[in-house]
TrEMBL record:
Record-stated family: Belongs to the RecF family.
Gene giving rise to this polypeptide: recF
Organism: Enterococcus saccharolyticus subsp. saccharolyticus ATCC 43076
Record's function text: The RecF protein is involved in DNA metabolism; it is required for DNA replication and normal SOS inducibility. RecF binds preferentially to single-stranded, linear DNA. It also seems to bind ATP.
Subcellular locations according to the entry: Cytoplasm
Name listed for the protein in its UniProt record: DNA replication and repair protein RecF
Length: 374
């Protein structure tokens, strides 16, 4: 899978931009605050329909405009698919092959991307919310059913939390309705849990091999999914549903006191172990960064395994955050098989380490100069 062209209209600091990509390594070179990251962000938004940098979509549209548009063409093994994303004050509109898509799950997964930015080095030591977001974004790209189940789960979770608050305030007394919401939560949440467990198992398989190599065979990486629904046999949907109901029953009184749902995938987390020690708690900064790098690179092979094609890789100024050994391993892993878009302020990190010739766009004050920039 590769992105052959990109057009932006009224997106961030770009009034009108058209780019054609002919090589597998594309570098956006320029000083900070010139617009490099905005281009990478647009590719991410085209793939995921939302930004990794802001939850306020209005920030993506130029302040004096009513609409922003991102267009791109995806080249797969035997097909060429145009994608279009329109952002307005009222919401988003997506098109695949010029046909509007009503469901998010029908659009996401057309273009699979893996983003690696400096903040992703916080995947290991950051908050559980960050790791849950990571899981949801990556699984959602390769499994449209997961995306549907997750959205439904989040809707029911919101309704259930609202009703728990109403019960506590004595505005409602119908506990039968709470049981209905609980059953819906269990239905969708159990599917989310199983999909996450399956994904983490495959992620660990690929990441452990990479980590072993990066650490020069000195460290063994284990990734565990820590669930608030304990002891469930993850290969059996009915058994997971039963375990989920039991977990909710155990915290029933606490939930009504705290007015919030206390068990389910929205409370879960990942832990990373190196040589049986928790990296989040006891790992050095170097070990934490190696773990994050191993996990991000593992996604490349995992997506290839699940979809049959390599994803597009977005590296946002991450080279300067890695030492020489990790830079070299990153570039060796992606070289020749993954289309990569890279932003950097200098070519020092890449020019002596790559054997493929890059396509370079020079970014100055929102203007791009390069072989294929218009």
């Amino acid at each position: 899978m590769r992105l052959s062209n990109l057009q932006l209209q009224n997106f961030r600091n770009y009034d009108d931009l058209s780019l054609t990509f002919t090589k597998n390594l594309v570098i956006f070179l320029g000083e900070n605050a010139q617009g490099k990251t905005n281009v990478l962000e647009s590719i991410f938004v085209l793939a995921m329909t939302r930004s990794h940098r802001t939850t306020n979509e209005q920030e993506l549209i130029q302040w004096d405009k009513n609409l922003a548009a991102i267009r791109g063409t995806i080249e797969r093994q035997h097909t060429s698919v145009p994608l279009e994303l329109f952002l307005t004050k009222k919401g988003r509109k997506t098109k695949v092959n010029h046909i509007e898509q009503k469901k998010l799950s029908s659009y996401i997964g057309q273009l699979n991307v893996i983003l690696f930015a400096p903040e992703d080095l916080s995947l290991v030591k950051g908050s559980p919310q960050l790791r849950r977001k990571f899981l949801d974004m990556e699984i959602g790209q390769i499994d449209p059913v997961y995306l549907y189940d997750l959205v439904q789960y989040q809707k029911v979770l919101k309704q259930r939390n609202q009703y728990l608050k109403q019960l506590a305030e004595k505005k409602q007394t119908d506990e039968l309705y709470l049981e209905v919401l609980t059953e819906q939560l269990v239905e969708f949440g159990s599917k989310v849990l199983i999909a996450r467990q399956k994904f983490v198992k495959r992620l660990e398989y690929w990441a452990s091999q990479l980590h072993h190599k990066i650490s020069q065979n000195k460290e063994n990486l284990v990734i565990d999914y820590i669930s608030s629904v304990p002891d469930a046999p993850w290969d059996n949907l009915e058994a997971v549903q039963t375990a989920f109901r039991q977990a909710l029953e155990k915290v029933k009184n606490k939930e009504q006191f705290r007015q919030v749902t206390l068990a389910g995938p929205h409370r879960d987390d990942l832990i990373f172990l190196i040589n049986e020690k928790n990296v989040q708690t006891f790992g050095s900064q170097g070990q934490q960064r190696t773990t994050a790098l191993s996990v991000k690179l593992a996604e490349i092979d995992l997506m290839k395994e699940e979809t049959g094609e390599y994803p597009v890789l977005l590296l946002d100024d991450v080279m300067s955050e890695l030492d020489d050994a990790r830079q070299l391993h990153l570039l060796e892993t992606i070289e020749g098989k993954v289309q990569t878009f890279l932003t950097t302020t200098t070519l020092e990190h890449v020019k002596d380490k790559m054997t493929v010739e890059p396509e370079i766009f020079y970014v100055r004050q929102g203007q791009l100069e390069g072989e294929s920039a218009e």
